[in-house]
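Researcher: Sequence recovery benchmark, item below. Answer with residues only.
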């Protein structure tokens, strides 16, 4: 298990059962990325990924609804959302998210960064992954809204809370999507761009 997987696992609420599920999920994703790297995304099937991870195809689909989701959903999401929930109450929503993102970057090992770079590159160049990413952005907005609502005592469906969550995702998309295809291997630079975008949002998006 990678360092990031350990960090994400430690952040998962619940007992041994939930941590075992997290390990299975991480193993499926690790083998999927390896197979994509070795034989290409289109040539890799769910059945091949499941066999490499020593699970059934049905188990694969319990963790990832589609093959595209195995690229888009990673431990970084889990770790960042849990880190967001744990930020000091006095921080503004954007400042708390920036701190959580910084913690996530600090927890990544070189191997984690390599996997993240591979996933980013696949998202940039594989049309079906890029299309599915829109659904993933919507799911991430839900997760951020839930974490922010818990911090400020509001309902996750509160209009202002969802607008804030959407704004966070929006500036991240604007800062990274046009740039990802050419520079996805430099994760440090990507996180710097994300933090700069969030700082611009925190300042009220001045021009």
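Model:
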């Amino acid at each position: 298990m990678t360092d990031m997987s350990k960090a994400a696992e430690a952040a998962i609420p619940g007992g041994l059962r939930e941590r075992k599920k997290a390990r299975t999920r991480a193993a499926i994703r690790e083998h999927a990325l390896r197979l994509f790297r070795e034989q290409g995304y289109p040539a890799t099937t769910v059945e091949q990924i499941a066999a490499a991870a020593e699970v059934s195809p049905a188990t694969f689909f319990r963790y990832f609804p589609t093959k595209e989701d195995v690229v888009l959903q990673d431990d970084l999401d889990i770790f960042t959302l849990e880190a967001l929930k744990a930020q000091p109450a006095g921080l503004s929503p954007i400042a708390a998210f920036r701190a959580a993102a910084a913690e996530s970057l600090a927890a990544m090992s070189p191997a984690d960064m390599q996997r993240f770079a591979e996933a980013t590159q696949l998202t940039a160049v594989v049309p079906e992954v890029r299309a599915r990413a829109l659904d993933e952005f919507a799911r991430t907005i839900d997760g951020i809204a839930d974490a922010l609502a818990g911090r400020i005592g509001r309902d996750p469906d509160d209009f202002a809370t969802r607008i804030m969550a959407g704004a966070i995702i929006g500036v991240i998309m604007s800062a990274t999507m046009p740039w990802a295809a050419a520079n996805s291997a430099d994760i440090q630079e990507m996180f710097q761009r994300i933090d700069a975008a969030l700082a611009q949002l925190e300042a009220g998006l001045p021009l």
